[in-house]
Amino acid sequence: MLNQAVIFCGGFGKRLMPITKKIPKPMVKVNGKPFLFHLIQQCKNNGIKKILLLCGYKSGVIRKYFGNGKKIGINIQYHINPPEIETYKRIFDARSFLEKEFLLLYSDNYCSLNLHDLFFNYKKLKSQLIISVCKKRKGNIIVDKKNKKISKYFFTKNKKADLVDIGYMIVNKKKLIANYLNTNIPFNFFINNLVRKKKANYFFNDTGYLSISDLARLKISQNFFRSNYVFIDRDGVLNEKNKNHFYVRNLKELKINHMFIRKLKKMLKNQELLCISNQAGIATGDLNYFNLKKINNKIKLELKKYKINLKDFFISTHHYNSNHFDRKPNHGLFLKAAKKYNIILDKTYYIGDDKRDIEASYNAKTKCLYIGKEKLSTNLKKKYIYTLI
């Protein structure tokens, strides 16, 4: 796994004026903390131990706040250039600080991160550069899906492109140095150079991304960062599983898991619940929609007695043999819940009792509190090391 993350922090942040008149863009407050704090914390949560900040404009503000990183449990180093220096030269000048391979971030973008998954794809593709991309109308990237390559990179928005470069890339230090052009130009020239050589891969992140690059986007991001939800499974968690059948089919068969709910009450910190559950009984004919609604309403009322608000249910009614995107271990319902309630997926967690719940969390880039009894293999423990909490 990667041990180092590098973050571009040197720009003027002109589109955020007048906020950036006194502070650099990465220090703009989001949910009471500098945006850069959220990025560093995200890296730490994914096992990164070292951070290199490439600073320029008002670098002293960043250094004063974070210091060497000891207070937040991570090693922070700095490399400082004049703010006029572009990102390509900025990272090349810091080459003595760089490790063999590293995660590279922009300081104004945030996207839910599963570094294990990103790094796995980087190694699988034998990549020199892999870039995280998200959907966007008028993006800047066109891809070759068959070969997992970036086929076209635009320096500005282009109506032909429906994907956008959001950073969160893994860079090979040797390739960075070998492809360096001794001039003061942006980092995307390096990206385009590898794209033209057909040596740049992409990683599609379907969770979307947030930005603080201008005042309008900052406002949207602040709204997302205030979100306060926890995802939770149903059968085996909120209610006991039906011992006499595969499914809970009616209210008579419903047994609330009061013991766990009492523990849940102590765990929650003014958070609301969103239930994500597979209910294949609809597809098999063992359960009907009328009873499903009655069961879910009863669970919601029981939780209310504990002053726990179960805000909504997201249910997959697909057959247990189905590989539908909404059926766990796939994560379609996680994306739908996140979109409806403005949730940053890697800033919340899912409570489940099945290994499929862990895999769904891994795919969704959220954390998982696993309360099941089935033990995980050594390989799964390694895979889920930064997913399980």
Please tell me about this protein's structure:
This protein is an alpha/beta fold. It has two domains: 4-225, Spore Coat Polysaccharide Biosynthesis Protein SpsA, Chain A (Alpha-Beta Complex); 229-383, Rossmann fold (3-Layer(aba) Sandwich), CATH 3.40.50. 31% of the residues lie in helices and 22% in strands. The chain contains 13 helices and 19 strands. The protein has helices at 35-45, 59-66, 87-93, 115-124, 173-178, 188-196, 215-225, 258-267, 281-284, 289-305, 332-341, 355-364, 378-383; strands spanning 4-9, 29-30, 33-34, 50-55, 75-80, 101-106, 109-110, 129-135, 141-144, 149-153, 163-165, 169-172, 200-204, 210-211, 229-232, 272-278, 310-316, 349-352, 367-370. Strands 1, 4, 5, 6, 8, 11, 12 and 13 form an eight-stranded mixed β-sheet that branches. Strands 17-16-15-18-19 form a five-stranded parallel β-sheet, with helices on both faces. A two-stranded antiparallel ribbon has the order 2-3. The model has no long low-confidence stretch (mean pLDDT 95).
Low-confidence region ranges: none
CATH class of the largest domain: Alpha Beta
**Fourth-tier CATH superfamily name of the largest domain:** Spore Coat Polysaccharide Biosynthesis Protein SpsA, Chain A
Number of domains: 2
What structural class should be given to the helix and strand makeup? alpha/beta
Structural shape: elongated
Mean pLDDT: 95
In the CATH hierarchy, the third-tier topology of the largest domain is known as: Spore Coat Polysaccharide Biosynthesis Protein SpsA, Chain A
